[in-house]
């Protein structure tokens, strides 16, 4: 018999070759999801999955987000109060027997009228890398 091929139910004269299934790309699982500091929303990749974020970076972002409040006016006094609140909130990561971060700088910028942007630069002591969080 000529024309044998592979069919779904074994060998037959009109069977079709089946392509092997495409192997999915391995996904990297992160314990923390990336949060955009400005919009305060999760960041998604091109496939619609959550982007990963360093655990320490997420902790810094969340601690600063909940500790600091917006002021009615943007003055040097309010910036200093904001700086103190940020340092107090991050004290759980900067103090203790094994601190997780070292604060390098806390900066305030005014990119547009009535908007205050905060930038916290720190060294992650677990990975020994310098990172920045912007709110």
Outline:
By secondary structure, the chain is of the alpha+beta class. It is built from three helices and five strands.
How would you summarize the topology of this molecule?
Blueprint (H helix, E strand, L loop, with lengths): L4 E3 L2 E3 L42 H13 L8 H14 L1 H4 L6 E12 L2 E10 L4 E6 L1
Antiparallel strand pairs: 1-2, 3-4, 4-5
The figure for the number of domains is: 1
Report how far apart the termini are.
74 Å
Order of helices and strands: EEHHHEEE
Major β-sheet, in short? 3 strands, antiparallel
Mean pLDDT reading: 79
Radius of gyration: 26 Å
What is the level 1 CATH name?
A: Alpha Beta
Cross-sheet strand order for the largest sheet: 3-4-5
What name does the CATH topology carry? Nuclear Transport Factor 2, Chain: A
What is the global morphology? elongated
Number of strands: 5
Q: What percent strand?
A: 25-35%
Q: Helix tally?
A: 3
């Amino acid at each position: 018999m000529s024309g044998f091929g592979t069919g779904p139910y074994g060998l037959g004269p009109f069977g079709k070759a089946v392509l092997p299934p495409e192997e999915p790309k391995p996904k990297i699982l992160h314990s923390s999801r990336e949060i955009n500091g400005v919009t305060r929303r999760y960041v998604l990749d091109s496939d619609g999955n959550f982007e990963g974020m360093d655990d320490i970076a997420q902790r810094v972002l969340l601690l600063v987000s909940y500790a600091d409040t917006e002021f009615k006016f943007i003055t040097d006094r309010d910036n200093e109060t904001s700086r103190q609140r940020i340092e107090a909130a991050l004290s759980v990561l900067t103090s203790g027997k094994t601190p997780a971060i070292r604060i390098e700088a806390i900066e305030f910028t005014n990119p547009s009228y009535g908007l205050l942007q905060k930038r916290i630069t720190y060294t992650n002591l677990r990975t020994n890398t310098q990172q920045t969080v912007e709110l």
